[in-house]
Amino acid sequence: MLELRTFRPEDVEALISWFPTEASLQDFAGPGIEWPLDRAQLDDRLRTSGLQAWTAFQPPSAEPIGHVELLQTEPHQARIDRVALSPAHRGRGLAADLVSAVLPLARDLDCHTVDLLVFAGNTPAVRAYLSVGFADVGAISPEYPSVRRMELTLLE
Q: In this structure, which CATH number among 3.30.420.40, 3.40.630.30, 3.30.360.10, 3.10.350.10 belongs to the domain 3-112?
């Protein structure tokens, strides 16, 4: 069972350590961040208006095992962003649990829909999002056909 807590300064080093290569960082953050990930880039990201960042852990341990961000993009819409699991916890089906754990927080913001972006080639992530109920609504643009937008309608 995963639980979420607000991302805090002591979680930074763990998150940074999960991305030993530029390719692993790009899957997490896309092209808008430079490798290697560092505290300054995270601090800059956390200043984004409307952004909430969360750390996942499995009680009784408080060790960070996941990260997820929620960004309110419009009055009734949010984007799930920067979903990551520690390398030791990948491949266990926890990505779906992590995304599911943040959905009640989107509902608390009165969001009716939630979307996310994913590289089409990131098959484990795509499978996880589909299992939660997201639908692939297409490429974000003709210039970026490999970046897919997925959407979920939140029902009351």
A: 3.40.630.30
